[in-house]
Prior knowledge:
Blueprint: H1 4-22, E1 29-33, E2 39-44, H2 47-50, H3 57-68, H4 71-75, E3 78-83, H5 87-96, E4 100-105, H6 107-113, H7 131-143
Parallel strand pairs: 3-4
Antiparallel strand pairs: 1-2, 1-3
Helix pairs in contact: 3-5
GO molecular function: catalytic activity
Organism: Micromonospora globbae
InterPro entries: CMP_dCMP_dom, Cytidine_deaminase-like
Amino acid sequence: MITTADEELLRRAIAIAAHAVTLGDAPYGSLLAGPDGTILAEAHNTVRRDDDISAHPELKLARWAARELDPETARRTTMYTSCQPCGMCAGGIVRSGLGRVVYALATEQLVELNPASGAWPTVTQDGPALFDEARVPVEAYYRA
């Protein structure tokens, strides 16, 4: 359930996205709010500027949270973002331990506004293979 406080923080994420456009960056912005609602960190998309396909604000903030927050604080921290996180960012958010995401535009809405946003090709994946060989370094690491 999205509260009035959530809406205010979500408006801030949208403002970050709008500011990104004035800098020549893509229109995506995010922030992290701690358990008490205090803004902990903000970021916007810098994929083109940084020539880095992973420079989405959600992933940058997930990485920040994983480095800077203890697990309990991360679990009680909310990410507010102008658009629904993509698969790459969603994976980073899960791994960071953040407890909640509130977003403005759904992926489907973004694709309606910018059809190129949904034009990613699929990648063929073949496997699993070579289990007995592949398990050796994994078992060595996790048994240590």
